[in-house]
Amino acid sequence: MQTTDTKSIAKAPVVPAPWQDWRPPQYSWAALQGDLMGGLVAALIALPYGLAMATLMGIPPMMGLMTSILTAPITALLGRNPVLIGGTSTVTVPFVAAAVASYGLGGAAKITIVAAIFLMGFCVLRLGGILASVPRPVVSGFSCGIGTMMIISQLKSLFGLKIAIGGTMLDQLLRAVGALPGLNWQVTAIGAATIAGAAWSSRRWPSAPSPMIGILAATAAGSFFGWHDKEVGALTLALPPLAGFVWSPADALMVLPNAMGLAIVSSVNLLITSRVVEHFRGRRADLKRSDADRELGAYGIANLFGGLFGAPFSVGIPARSLANVRCGGTTRMSNLFHAVFVLAFMTALAGFVAHVPISALAGVTAWMGFCLLEWSTWSRLNKMRRTDAAAFLLTASSVLVVNAAVAVAVGWSAYAVHWAFERVMQARLPLNTEPVEQRR
Fold it and tell me: Shortest CA distance to 311 belongs to which of 43, 81, 59, 74?
């Protein structure tokens, strides 16, 4: 008769379920402080960005913020990267805007729900590893391109320029340069004070919340010197009703292809952004296949819930995520606090947020863009393999000339061309390649 070893049973490790690892075993006051500050600054950055993205999509501006409030608790609970902050992004604008133009406000719900189902399908089929298998030079180029895009996108607010928004980042840069003679020096001073305050505090106190210090410094300087700029303004909270829409046979031809494109572009963008954030944290390891699948599944479930209310699609946002890390965010609680603060800004703290200058928030975003410019990669560019250097430069430049999603494919093409060239050269070699001594 077999006996049970009670000691071995008592010592057997207990493996937590995926949804039970959201809280670290030892959650210190320092971690809580960092998560609170990281979530606070990420929420501040989310305010103008979310409002602007929703406007470009053709939906009510507040829906750009509702995306964070509705999806962040789910991604914080189920997501793989603890400091990845999600929200509305420029890569999703063309898809959602086209759906809204064809189907009205219900179009945003349609394409978001279908794309979310595709994302969950990618997770079940374990396609995350394929979508995340991007060479590191492409990831570095993507990081550099996104950083440049963050800077260029804020030039209008940083200098108080009267220019149109739209087109590629290169188009916006050219318009901004042409309008520089008409800059507003008071707006520029507030933005410069924000960048200077954030940069100085990051050097003086590396663990301090540099973006928040920059915002406070700029706000104080503006009040002292009498500098004026457009403020965030009053925010109001109104929970949207469940989105109303009707499915028709024509949706198979219109919604399904666009939703598949949105799902693929969002998946690649999400996984690369997650890798960029990990790279920024000093973690160079590649994303595991199971982790990539889990990230896609988490955002699929979150967007399915958000889509029921007509909220636009949520993906990882570099500016918010990096601000979260810079301010000390280390756990999933920072993602949850980000949503809580967005909700608070629209309710209890609406009076304070209403007086924050737009140029101060633009300064924070631009400063985070400077941090993403991959200065170390530029310094060793001449020592890299030609294929790696070409992939880096192609990816970084394509973000500005085309868009972030296409940039990854362009960077990847450098390796495809190199592989094809090697195969052609091998095919042209003579069949008898034995050494001369052996042929004799």
Answer: 59
Whether 369 is in a domain gets the answer: yes
Q: What are phi and psi of 320, to 5 degrees?
A: -70, -40
**Cα dihedral 120, 123, 128, 129 in deg (nearest 10):** -170
Question: What are 232-291's pLDDT values in tens digits?
Answer: 776 666 655 666 666 677 676 778 888 888 898 888 889 888 888 887 777 666 667 788
Q: Round to whole Å and give the CA distance between 344 and 44.
A: 11
Range of the domain at 263: 26-236+251-384
Give the sign of the dihedral formed by CA 30, CA 32, CA 34, CA 40.
negative
* Residues 352/151, Cβ–Cβ less than 8 Å: no
Classify residue 12: in a domain, yes or no.
no
The CA distance from 122 to 68, in Å, is: 23
* Residue 243 counted as domain residue: no
Residue 428 lies in a domain: no
CA 80 to CA 97: how far, in whole Å? 29
Q: Are 438 and 208 in contact (CB under 8 A)?
A: no
The SS3 assignment for 317 reads coil
What are 278-287's pLDDT values in tens digits? 877 776 666 6
Instruction: Supply the Cα-derived Rg of the chain in whole angstroms.
Output: 24
Angle at 370 between CA 366 and CA 371, to 5 degrees: 120
Are the C-beta atoms of 355 and 231 separated by less than 8 Å?
yes
* Cα distance between residue 77 and residue 97, in whole Å: 29
Rounded to whole angstroms, how far apart are CA atoms 399 and 168? 9
| Residues 327 and 209: beta-carbon distance below 8 Å | yes
Task: Look at residues 320, 352, 338 and name the one whose alpha carbon lies nearest to residue 231.
Answer: 352
The neighbour count for residue 371, using CB atoms within 10 Å, is 21
Model pTM score: 0.69
